[in-house]
Amino acid sequence: MNLNPKKKDSKKTGPKTLFFLGKGGTGKSTASALTALELAAKGSKVLLASFDDAHNLSDIFQAEFSHRPARVADNLEVLQVDRDREIKRYLDQTTKKVKQSYNYLTAFNLHNYFDVLKFSPGMEAHALATAFTDLKKKHRGLDYLIIDMPPTALSMHFFNLPALSLLWIEQLEKLRNEINERKEIISRIKVGNKEIQRDKVLARIKALKTDHLDLKAFFGDPERALFIAVHNGEPLSRAETQRIISQLEAMGIGITGLILNHRSPSRPRGELPAEMAAVNSMELPYSADPLIGMDTLNHYAKKEKINLAPLLS
User: Fold this and answer.
1) What does the mean pLDDT of the chain come to?
2) Average of pLDDT values for 188-210?
3) Which of 62, 77, 90, 243 would bridge 69 by S-S if both were Cys, CB 3.0 to 4.6 A apart?
4) Which residues sit opposite 261 in a β-bridge?
5) Cα–Cα distance list, 105 to 19, 181, 188, 238 (Å)
6) Separation between Cα atoms, residue 209 and residue 165, nearest integer Å
7) What is the DSSP string of the chain?
8) What is the mean pLDDT of residues 227-232?
9) Is the dihedral of CA 291, 313, 40, 20 positive or negative?
10) CA-to-CA distance for 157 and 144, rounded, in angstroms?
């Protein structure tokens, strides 16, 4: 795996994306912050984004972050995704597209329906997918995009969203094609001197299909998307990490690496389950001082000789 994206044209390929996963409280925010600092210190342009409402990155860097990137060090910016804002933005975009495709529905007050939809199951995963897609587009020139993920259940919904959505979209596409075969509902438009036929609904279905196919392919590409699970060796943390590995594998996604956080001599590592033992791993030693503040993070990384690069190889 190439750890020097400068050898590639990142504006074409987009940034390499690192997803940090794990049970709450195991230190995935700290691990993602240390990784971002290490990569930025080596000259890579990095954006660290929190998808977790816990706002741990604000505590770690002792700064307030919003949806706009804020510079915290050379080559490193940080932002906090506002999930409520993203849900509203996703629904606004969806409302606009539905109105464009289904003109006859303008007689109804669609906004009332979409006000209810924001409480629908799965809406948070859709909103995060929209936020992630936008981040990739807006920051194509970066070397690395690092995502501090939310709790495991929502993270798994997010990664499984493309495959699940495609099951519905492909049925919708099939149904729409069958309708078109029986009834001429397609409209005719002129492009230059040519008259062409266009079904706006089918075009919208195909656009959705393309978006989800692209996202699914991205998650399954180990050259572009890397998945790092953080655990602290405790039984509950270890069990959740095992489930993360299994569930990602079921989605066709391979785990990239494991980080064992907070290990101390008084807490033996013990024997890892086979699923975890087979994954490239490293340890973050116990720190008596809370890893809060830029100076503390840099001092810890230097003292413990933290080098996360091999984990990504």
Assistant:
1) 84
2) 73
3) 77
4) 284
5) 40, 23, 20, 50
6) 8
7) --S-GGGS-HHHH--EEEEEEESTTSSHHHHHHHHHHHHHHTT--EEEEE--TT-HHHHHHTS---SS-EEEETTEEEEE--HHHHHHHHHHHHHHHHHHH-GGGGGS-HHHHHHHHTTSTTHHHHHHHHHHHHHHHHTTT-SEEEEE---HHHHHHHHHHHHHHHHHHHHHHHHHHHHHHHS---EEEEETTEEEEE-HHHHHHHHHHHHHHHHHHHHT-TTTEEEEEEE-S-HHHHHHHHHHHHHHHHTT----EEEEEEE-TTS---PPPHHHHTS-EEEEE--SS---SHHHHHHHHHHTT---GGGG-
8) 94
9) negative
10) 23
Q: Output b/e per residue, 293-308; b: 16+ Cβ within 10 A.
A: ebeebbebbeeeebeb
pLDDT in tens, 64-120: 999 999 999 999 999 999 988 888 887 777 777 666 665 555 555 655 666 666 666
Token duo for residue 7: 């050898």
- pTM here is 0.84
Residues 280, 256 contacting (CB under 8 angstroms) = yes
What is the share, in percent, of the chain residues with pLDDT greater than 70?
Answer: 80
Token pair for residue 34? 């240390």
- Report phi then psi at 52, rounded to 5: -100, 125
Q: What is the 3-state secondary structure of 186-215?
A: CEEEEECCEEEEECHHHHHHHHHHHHHHHH
Looking at beta carbons, which pairs linking 212-218 to residues 24 or more positions away fall under 8 Å?
212/161, 212/162, 212/165, 212/166, 212/169, 213/162, 213/166, 215/129, 215/133, 215/161, 215/162, 216/162, 216/163, 216/166, 218/17
Q: Quote the tokens at residue 63.
A: 């700064």
94: burial class by Cβ within 10 Å (0-12, 13-18, 19+)?
middle
Question: In the structure encoding, which two tokens stand for residue 224, read together?
Answer: 């572009």
